Amino acid sequence: MATSEAFEIIDGDYGRGLLLLGDHATALLPADYGDLGLPAAAFARHIAYDIGVEPLLRALAARLNVPAVMSRFSRLLIDPNRGEDDPTLIMRISDGAVIPANHPMSAEERERRLSRFHRPYHQAVSETIARVAERSGRAPLLLSLHSFTPHWKGVPRPWEVTVLWDGDDRAMRPLLQALSADATLTVADNEPYDGALRGDTLFRHGMVAGLAHALIEVRQDQIGDEAGAIAWADRLAPIFESLNGLPELHRVERHPSRTGPYDD
């Protein structure tokens, strides 16, 4: 296991060809950033991190014996699941909460956060992908874990779990089929967000590289306590295991992005 203020790498069998990701796993802040001018309660909210993802990620990595990379800084500091040119990279206001330390912001401070947190996280993801590819001898499958609020602006969200994707549906299709086979679940794809986000983690490490990938969103009330996270790890582990056994998910295939042409 390797840990820094920007990321944690959870070790597993790198030869299995599967890597788990947790972009918004924690609400941590380094001491020199204090509380960003926010009350402590803000860091228990979804604006600071994806509730339930860290215990779910750890449980799945252990059950599957696969490596995982997760962030160790709050998305309020800088969002690792955004491109460097994305206007929501460093939020000034999030779900009604004004973040005093994020506005105004100098170019020097923006660069400091990129070089100290955002870039090291993505470097860790890149290096871990390379290690999985080397040990397994095949293209890795990337599965990213996120969570979403049960309601948004007073409107309930009926899905317990959703799958987000862009132009490469290789992992999405069997994943959605497996989840939909459970009659107790309400499942959707590209809800409550569209998975086509240029410059995000899976665009950068999946779409551009031609690696099969999918983003799984679990509703936060499902995994907000340890029992829920463990129950969902039990549910997802055999599905992920089955996906990892599909040869077509371990081939490099570059698919068109719905965000437009690649820069190259």
In a few lines, what is going on in this structure?
It contains six helices and twelve strands.
Record the SSE blueprint.
Layout: E1 2-3, E2 7-10, E3 18-22, H1 53-64, E4 68-71, E5 93-94, E6 97-98, H2 107-136, E7 141-148, E8 151-152, E9 155-156, E10 161-164, H3 172-180, E11 187-189, H4 201-207, E12 213-219, H5 220-223, H6 226-244
Parallel strand pairs: 3-4, 3-7, 7-12, 10-11
Antiparallel strand pairs: 1-2, 2-4, 5-6, 8-9, 10-12
Helix pairs in contact: 1-6, 3-6
Description:
With 264 residues, the chain is an alpha/beta fold. 31% of the residues lie in helices and 17% in strands. The strands form three sheets. Strands 1-2-4-3-7-12-10-11 form an eight-stranded mixed β-sheet, with helices on both faces. The chain is globular, with a radius of gyration of 18 Å. The two termini are 35 Å apart.
Task: List descriptors.
264 residues; alpha/beta; 8-stranded mixed β-sheet; two-stranded antiparallel ribbon; globular
Helix count from the secondary structure assignment: 6
Major sheet: arrangement of strands: 1-2-4-3-7-12-10-11
| Number of separate strands | 12
What structural class do helix, strand and pairing data support? alpha/beta
What share of the residues lie within helices?
25-40%
Could you state the order of secondary-structure elements as H and E? EEEHEEEHEEEEHEHEHH
Low-confidence segments: none
Mean pLDDT: 96
What overall geometry do the principal axes of the alpha carbons give? globular
